[in-house]
Amino acid sequence: MHASCNLGIVQVGAVGAFAMSAAGALATSRAILGSGSRTAHAAFALARALRRVQKHGLGSLGGKGRERGAAVAGPSDDEVALALPWFVYERTGMKQPAPLLASPFERLRALLTEPDPPAFMIHAGDQIYYDFPLPRRAPDLEEYRRAYREAFFEDGVEREFLASCPQYMTLDDHEIVDGFARDWVPGDSVRPLEYLVPALRAYDEYVASRQTPEIACDTRNLDRHRGYAFEYGASRFFVLDTRTQRSRGERRMLDPEQMAAFLGWLVEHRERIKFVVSSVPFVAELRRRGEGEDESDDKWTGRPFRAQRDRLLEFIHAHQIGRLVFLVGDMHASYHATLRLGAPDRRVRVEELAGGPIHQLQYATRDDFFDEFHGATETCAIPFRTRLRTFHGTGGGVLRIHVRPGARPEIDWRVVRTGTPMGSTHRLRDLSGSIDLAEPS
Predict the structure, then answer these.
(1) Same domain, 32 and 131
(2) By the 8 A CB rule, do 330 and 362 touch?
(3) Phi/psi of residue 37, each to 5°?
(4) What's the total number of domains in the chain?
(5) Which of 58, 91, 124 is the last residue of a domain?
(6) Are residues 53 and 142 in the same domain?
(7) Are strands 348-354 and 324-328 parallel, antiparallel or unpaired?
(8) C-alpha angle with apex 137: 192 to 17, nearest 5 degrees?
(9) Distance between alpha carbon 309 and the CA centroid of its chain, in Å?
(10) What is the DSSP string of 159-198?
């Protein structure tokens, strides 16, 4: 199985509970204090309180944490009413006595009881959402640890699933902060390394030390990538760390050490079935939505990282690396995309399967991608064409992948539904496909 993006049901339920309690508190405040101008005052107080929370944290409510040097007036009646749900929200750590939503892991747990159960599961990033629901949540080691506990253990079905099936994971930005790079964090005054230090410490404790034993003895090394390789049956896997060493200024996702290991792995297993796990899309091309900062800049095809992607494509073409499939996440959608690289007499094909999301509140659309894209690499001008072959973005689901090795290896895949959009009765239609790795490019 392959997926990404698990916004925990505890987090989603807590946001809903806060919204309802805040609305109730405002209604009570208006009933006690009267209507008329008080209604407008309550709405203004809510906006002011939320702005302070976003800027200064939860402790700023109730008259605390105002801008330095400003006179501090006592909290208004409406702010007192608003402070109560925030106080409960903060002190309970988003915990609930019982889940308010069905676990998205119910269907995955059921797969383990089938006659031919999945051998393992790959998580391609965003196992936690540290920056949800507060985008400006200050970096703190204990808060990162709490986010993993909430994501992994407070959903009883997920806890059982994680304990019953081998799991291979990597991290993306939401394990640190949205859009993270070592030299860039969007719209924030906090330096990137202030996020990375506690985020990597918690990730190493909960994930990396279980994937790669050497990490357990080196958890404080910020310059060591968290990539690793493993194998199963006839297939070889390389799990990239595309997040902790990425630098926009240096135009790279992979640091030199990881890049060298990855290139060596590609050549070593040139004739084998190979899966490369990347937390962000490698093959599929996203559309830009404007001239400024854009979501597409965060992917392999984005402006800061396309040059390194081109170098990888040129290496794949030069060494004629075949039977290559990227397993990617991040986009809150499932799809199959293909890249054909080089002239017809020396062409190489690269496949891409996107898995996920396991559970999310928003989904990508096909309009976010190019159905077909023609280009050429930066240095050697090798022509390539990408094609988005199948796409699904209307509900949660993971990919179930079956490899049929042999002289003519094939891959069968299908989407396994894990949920539908909140408030929708739309059911995920069956989506499946096959990849013939021996098909001429």
Answers:
(1) no
(2) no
(3) -65, -25
(4) 2
(5) 91
(6) no
(7) parallel
(8) 155
(9) 20
(10) HHHHHHS-EEEE--GGGT-TT-BTTB-TT-SS-HHHHHHH
| pLDDT recorded at residue 28 | 54
Name the token pair of 372: 């077909």
37-56 vs 77-91: helix crossing angle, rounded to 10: 40
The predicted-structure confidence for 182-207, as pLDDT tens digits, reads as follows 998 877 678 999 999 999 999 999 99
> How is residue 204 annotated by DSSP?
I
148, 126 Cβ separation under 8 angstroms: no
Cα–Cα dist 78/25, whole Å: 8
The range of the structural domain enclosing residue 81 comes to 12-91
The amino acid occupying position 128 is I
What residue type is 314 in one-letter code?
A: E
- Residue that has been written with the tokens 């060596």 in this structure: 264
91 or 241, greater pLDDT: 241
Both structure tokens of 440: 């001429």
Nearest alpha-carbon partner for 275 in 239, 313, 317: 239
CA distance 243 to 305: 12
Model confidence pLDDT, tens digit, residues 136-184: 789 999 999 999 999 999 889 999 999 999 999 999 999 999 999 999 8
